[in-house]
Amino acid sequence: MLYFGDSWTRGQAVAPGKGYVPVSAALEGWKAIRNGEGGTGYVNTLRSTGSVYPERVASLPTVPAPKLIILQGGLNDARADPAEIVPAALLTFSEMEERFPGVPIVVVGPSTYLWPVPANVQAVDGALVRATDEAGLPYISPLAEGWINGTNIERAISTKFRHPTAAGYKLYAIRLLESLHRLSAD
User: Fold this and answer.
1) Cα separation, 133 vs 38, whole angstroms
2) Count of the separate structural domains present in the chain
3) Are 108 and 142 in contact (CB under 8 A)?
4) N or C: which end of the chain has fewer CB within 10 A?
5) Range 172-178, long-range pairs (CB < 8 A, 24+ positions)
6) Can you give the pLDDT at residue 48?
């Protein structure tokens, strides 16, 4: 399993082994290859030394080849024009498909650390829906599925770090696995 994404994929703000990647991999018995970089997105990077997703794909090792790619993110693109996100996402998808031919890709959109969900984060989710529809890739929307919501945000998100708590990452991992199982059943 290759997990590719932003700081949420990296497991920022929690102890090693407590992010959604190691938790979901352990629950399923998968070997996880994690490539998470804080502040990055499809079109935006919040760090002067960071790079955007299409550029990052080129540096991914191809050996061992993953059996499935989880492509997570979009929250860092909330300040970007949604019209720019669709072509950048399509480029990311095609670069990923070229680098890993035949490996299934599941795109996971942004979640939130604020409630209610800001309109600009919802716009990123809508742009990724359009991009995955055009590319013919499966899309999981944590926003539409309500993974983090008004009833659980206080325990799921650290207000200090604006990232999930250990409990929040565990919730995210479980919801991700539920969504992946639904996709595989379809």
Assistant:
1) 27
2) 1
3) yes
4) C
5) 172/8, 172/20, 172/111, 172/142, 172/147, 172/148, 173/20, 173/21, 173/23, 173/24, 173/27, 174/24, 174/27, 175/142, 175/145, 175/147, 176/20, 176/24, 176/70, 176/108, 176/140, 177/24, 177/27, 177/28
6) 66
- pLDDT for 49 equals 67
Model confidence at 45, in pLDDT bands (50, 70, 90)? Answer: confident
Omega into 64 within 30° of 0, i.e. cis? yes
pTM to 2 decimal places: 0.96
Please report, for the domain that includes residue 126, its CATH number.
Answer: 3.40.50.1110
pLDDT in tens, 66-76: 999 999 999 99
Backbone angles phi, psi at 140, to 5 degrees: -115, 125
